[in-house]
Design brief:
about 100 residues, 3 helices, four-stranded antiparallel beta sheet, globular, alpha+beta
Length: about 100
């Protein structure tokens, strides 16, 4: 079964409010055995829209990644993120 990758592009617009998201989101990732591969490091945009922050999270499967996104823990985290940032998030299946 191929791994899945949660990829997020984020520009924080309200750091204080975003800190509330950051305080609770890790519980969801930990519960679903997520592994952060990239989180906010140096980025250079070569094509397309520019985002301030990029995050890549590895999951053991697409089902596990989707379960994390739809979990009670992450739903609560998303509510705290509302109005704190602009974000684009997608999950993609890796290759075997």
């Amino acid at each position: 079964m191929p791994k899945a990758y949660w990829i997020a592009q984020v520009t924080v617009t309200d750091p204080d409010r975003y800190a509330g998201y950051q305080a609770v989101a890790p519980a969801a990732f930990q519960e679903h055995s997520a592994r952060f591969l990239a989180r906010g490091g140096q980025t250079e945009t070569l094509e397309g829209a520019e985002w301030a922050r990029h995050v890549v999270i590895e999951f053991n499967s697409m089902e596990q990644a989707l379960a994390c996104y739809h979990s009670e823990e992450y739903t609560a985290a998303r509510k705290r993120r509302d109005g704190a940032c602009e974000a684009q998030i997608f999950i993609t299946e890796g290759m075997d």
